[in-house]
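Good morning,

Attaching, inline, the backbone tokens for the sequence recovery test we're adding to the shared suite. The designed sequence is right after.
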């Protein structure tokens, strides 16, 4: 089974406590700040979908992992959409097909 996991992180989220001097007012950020979006596919058989070290050597032009990282916002790379998910899935399928074909060729050439 393969599952899809997405996470969105902001630079000012998290802990609500802060250090402040007793005689000065606390200055807190008003907004959530810069954000990043991470999309990844995870398998119960092998964990994160990524090439093994031996596959990296066999396919040096392929990215090592299926994770997508995006700095979101109108002044950055835009926003994560369904189109991005489809492109990511097609990319993963391409990697899988190439690896299967490579293994198939090796097995039948023995």
């Amino acid at each position: 089974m393969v599952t899809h996991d997405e996470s969105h992180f902001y630079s000012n989220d998290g802990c609500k406590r802060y250090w402040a001097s007793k005689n000065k007012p606390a200055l807190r950020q008003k907004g959530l700040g810069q954000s990043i979006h991470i999309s990844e596919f995870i398998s119960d058989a092998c964990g994160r979908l990524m090439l093994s070290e031996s596959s990296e050597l066999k396919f040096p032009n392929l990215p090592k992992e299926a994770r997508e990282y995006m700095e979101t916002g109108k002044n950055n790379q835009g926003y994560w959409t369904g189109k991005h998910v489809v492109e990511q899935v097609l990319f993963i399928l391409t990697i899988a097909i190439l690896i299967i074909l490579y293994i198939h060729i090796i097995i039948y050439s023995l």
